[in-house]
Amino acid sequence: MRHLLIAIIATLLSCTGAFAQEGAIQPVLQNHQAAIVKSSRKTIAPAIDAIASSGVPQAQQVLEVWAAKNMWMRKSDGVFFIAEKAEDKTYRLTDFDTGQTIDGVLKADLKQIKPNSGIRAMIGTALVRFQLMDADKDKRQDALTSIERDPEAAHLAPLRASIDAEPDAGLKAQKQRLERLLTIGYDEDTQARVDAILEMSGDLGVDVRATLNPLMTTTRAVSAGDVPQGLNIAQVLVPGKEDFDTEAAYELLVKENLAAPRLSSGEMRAILAEHIDGGSIAGVPVAQMNTLENRSKAYASLAAEGKVPPLVTDETIQAALATHVFYDVYSEPSAEVTDAAQKALNDISVNVGMNQALDLTLDALSLASIYFLAAIGLAITFGVMGVINMAHGEFIMMGAYTGYVVQQIIPDHTISIIVAIPLAFAVTFAAGVAMERLVIRWLYNRPLETLLATFGISIALQQLAKNIFGTQARPLTAPGWLDGAWVINDVVSISYIRIAIFILAFIFLGVFLFIMKRTRLGLETRAVTQNPRMASSMGINKDKVNMLTFGLGSGIAGIAGVAIGLFAKVTSELGSDYIVQSFMTVVVGGVGNIWGTLAGATMIGFLQKGIEWLNPSNTLAAQTYMIIFIIIFIQFRPRGIVALKGRAAGD
Amino acid sequence: MQRSFFAKNPSVLVFLALLAIFTLVVTVLSEGFGMGFISTSFIKTLGKTLCLCLIAVAMDLIWGFTGILSLGHFAFFGLGGYMIGMWLMYERTRLIVVESLSQAEIPPTSAEVVDAIGNQIFGVVGSSEFPLVWAFADSLFLQLALVVLVPGILALVFGWLAFRSRVTGVYLSILTQAMTLALALYLFQNDSGLRGNNGLSGLQNLPGVTASQDQVSLWFLWASAFALGVGYMIAAWVVSGKFGSVIRGIRDNEARVRFLGYSVETYKLAVFTLTACLAAIAGALYYPQAGIINPAEIAPIASIYLAVWVAIGGRGRLYGAVIGAAFVSLLSTWFTGGQAPDISLGFYTIKWVDWWLVLLGLSFVLVTLFAPKGMGGLVDLWTDRRVPNRHGADLGPDDGALREKEASE
């Protein structure tokens, strides 16, 4: 190390003293000629450093040429040139300093300098300082990106040097942030690192965590007697406490060659099998070897005879553990740094936790709006009319397939969505009205049979879709302006499609409220819901109102289908994926009230996301627990969150 | 005057006689017996159909007679299958493992045997430990008890929760469907302890039995026929007495029965649990014949098909349920098995594999609309039962009551 430093200093001195005034790079190269020609990774460092820090403008060019294997040496005097192959198999040499060219040099007079990949990487590192100061903004950005991807201690000094001269404000901020991160990782001054860590604590960036986490890496170690001094100990472990059991402790001892390995039952079995002697092992018959006690006994006799190593028993394990001490040691030697990093990580995790809660809330809201969209049509047919429509999911599917078909005809995604939404409404409205006229109106007094009849329609429609569109998923592509996500920071983000669905759900809520509270149809629907016979007496055409209400509910399911198809694949099973959740939403929310449906969707959305957060690896389990929760919830509020009161509640 | 049970229910005798004749004829014609007119695979299909008839009887009891449209009885069916499947799989694997370990120089310890079985069974889900639910898998007797106990207790707890909070009608249907879905989703997980979506397989091989599948399939046919006969008699006995009158009353107007002082919840709970146990027994006989059980069998759609069978057969009469289940499931096997001839329309060929479900769905709607009595209603033509002509006046206590359909002069 000292050797290297002296070499660098000597080079620096020689550069500044003798040659730098003249602005020539050749003398620097000549100083290190032997090292450059030898091209060994071990000895090249002073040469690269000398060139890079020579302050000569040509230095960057030299490094680039060198890395590209285009630097050649003239054998006669050892001068380095850029060489280009000319047409007549001779080479044209260009001087680094003067730019003069010499034509017609034969290959035999030259020697190509071929740096290996290790050296090229070192040259690349040295080049970074030039790129950071490059006049081209894109090159500076590239250099920063490459440092971010693969940070090294050597980058710190050139990065610092380049900050002040940086003209672009955005890049300057980026450089400053990167400088802080490199300081944390590589600065030699402990206090500077601690300061940098404290400065970055609470920052949400993934890069900060990526810098801090390696500082916290520990290795588990064991030593005889007391904990050795001079190590940055994270914690001392007691075997058998917390998540460090005696098995693991003993395994560690075995791994460090501090104890004899324990025999697994399979190994003992193999060893015993080797020592079968005429139908018995150490006097015990083989037939009795089917219990662990007999095997241990036989093995102990073998060990006593000295044929096998003695058995490692629980007592020997306990004794071995008692004489050793186990601890986790940081790979980072400075305790101040690890303490500061721990504190900063704690701050960050609190901050990340809060932001994750926000992200989870956004996710839950988005899921709730999807459930609301899927359930609102059902809330009309089931809630307002008391008709249970098992084919509701298939209406959602029909809407999605309508969107798909429209997209096949109109290639522009934006226009096709604008066309598909009213068309999907029209298709499913017609299907709903047809179903009401043909089937449901005969079954108004028999709700269970309505359930089954609509189920029959549901399986027929599903199979029909399968026959027409096939079983594979069909894409329904969102318009370009819905691609991407709204990114708030590294933790919180939400895709534009989900925002659009959220808005769509609100529009639906508004439309529904408007129809129910402000239009003639809504008035009549409410009247028929509350007292059908009285409504008829008042001159309301009950059949027509029922038909239109059912059509409306089905039509909304069609629009929901277009929306759902945008983020889920369109298959014939699309509807049945949502039907149970939709029913749950209506039942939990309370039948016959749109606010109840909203509350139900919100509750189920938040519940599902909450359970998924507790157990992120298992969405199946999340759904199971959610359904169980709903069954229990129904116990306490059998009529849902918003229960109707009075005569409208029925019974 | 006390008349005997059979005298009051002549249909039970007719049914049992037909079942006995059917079993006898099939046995005689089977490969296992030697005639070989009926292939072993078809014997299995017939045996499975008998099990489906048994669960249809259970479904008729709960839906046709008590008025609870349960969309969860296939969950009990599947649970019964899982319980017997655990023993079958454990025992068979144990025999294989013991056989292979006995080749080794040193005899295995019992712990080694259990470990090897665990490795064999749970290797597919990346585990080798026996989960807690397999605690009794080594005992046939306990596992047979669990066939009835596990679904029974599940039905008891679920029913108690549902009925005490007065969840009725379509709400209850959706709730039972949710329960089924929750169970199916739970079993789909690999760490549920029942091999995730691989399910349990190889159940057709009875451990320790060397007889060929020709013979075994016959044994199961007899067992299924016997179970169906006994189950039918239990169901007929339940609905024939005072208990039957009360549950029919609950079906037609629950509030009135409650006001008369009957504990409606207890009656419903008793029927719900009884039918769950019947369903579980049917499942325990079904899956050894099917050979494999996986969570997809429990999916809510299966329970809805069950309701479809009963509705097509004619709910509210036990033989209707049996006819419906046998007819629709056999027809379904025929159509989806690709045996039905395609119909060429010139521009399009109707392949029944694709169109059978459309036909089933639509015919189901038509039956619901135009023939609420189902196929069982045809029997009325033969027995010459006449419906009282009340000139349009209601008979039943409620709009949706079935009493109207059951009345006779």
Automatic annotation (TrEMBL), chain A:
Pfam families registered for this protein in UniProt: BPD_transp_2
Compartments in which it is found: Cell membrane
Organism: Shimia thalassica
Keyword RNA-binding: no
Protein name: LIV-I protein H
GO annotation, biological process: amino acid transport
Cited PANTHER family: ABC TRANSPORTER PERMEASE PROTEIN, BRANCHED-CHAIN AMINO ACID TRANSPORT SYSTEM PERMEASE PROTEIN LIVH
Transmembrane portions of the chain: 364-388, 417-435, 496-516, 547-567, 579-607, 619-636
From TrEMBL, chain B:
Keywords, ordered alphabetically: Cell membrane, Membrane, Transmembrane, Transmembrane helix
GO cellular component: plasma membrane
Matches recorded under InterPro entries: ABC_transp_permease (IPR001851), ABC_transptr_urea_perm_UrtC (IPR017778), LivM-like (IPR043428)
Cellular compartments annotated: Cell membrane
A Pfam entry, by short name: BPD_transp_2
Keyword Lipoprotein tagged: no
Gene Ontology terms for molecular function: branched-chain amino acid transmembrane transporter activity
Protein name, entry field: Leucine/isoleucine/valine transporter permease subunit
TM segment ranges: 71-90, 140-163, 170-188, 219-239, 266-286, 292-311, 318-335, 355-372
Its membrane topology: Multi-pass membrane protein
Alphabetized CDD domains for the sequence: TM_PBP1_LivM_like
Coiled-coil regions listed in the entry: none
